[in-house]
Amino acid sequence: MSSEKNKRFRRRTAWVALGGAVTAFALATVAVVVRGNTTAPAPSLASGAGGPVTEVGGGGGTPPMQAINDVWGLSSQRANCRMCHNVRPSTMNIVDATWAQRPVVFNRYGAAYRDLLFQKIAPAQVSIYDVPLRLKKDAARWPTLLASDSDGDGYSNEVELTFGSMPGRRSSHPWRPAAQLERWRAIIVRELHGRQIARLELDTRVRRVGPDTDGDRVPDVLERFVGSDPRRRNATPLVAARRLAVYRQLLLDAGVPIR
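Now predict its structure.
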């Protein structure tokens, strides 16, 4: 990497996009809390479903992307710099295209994340690359950021990140009504309380959940869950299939009817 690019990497006003992030959904190190409810379990997602092994989210090509992808279980294959940046069409890969554009343009969600990180969480830092990953993750789950609707599309940032759309783009939002998804989000947060989502992602009921008609790595049942079209590859949620499967199973276990 050239020295000039290294310099650009360390400029506070030109950090690369956040890739692609639940208040209580971070990977914890505490053990799963076994709940006292002994009622019969809800129907499993995986009963007779078969299909491909569901993808696991997290990671990313840059530290900001890794922070948000890890917290929200986003797919590193689908969540990219456009999560927080407006990038002009280019033949370059998305990271290089983001750097080549001057000035680097943040959408409203990206700008809110940037300002929160440097004004409240890590004010002594001058580059996002110097901010510890745990602090970037703190920003990704900051309550006021999540409660906001950065792009003004009627869906809170937290709802969009939970169900797989971009909180900084008005044209990107879930197809299900916002009120329904907000109710589901609240139930998911409640059901996750004190539990370790990484352990839940190992549950055999969420490893295989059925066929993937359009081959986009998100099985049909999960696309219908968030309201995207299982026959269209360009209608794929940003959240990795395994995380969506966990969310859906938590709702089923709580007795929520999903149609």
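Residues 141 and 198 are 17 Å apart (CA to CA).
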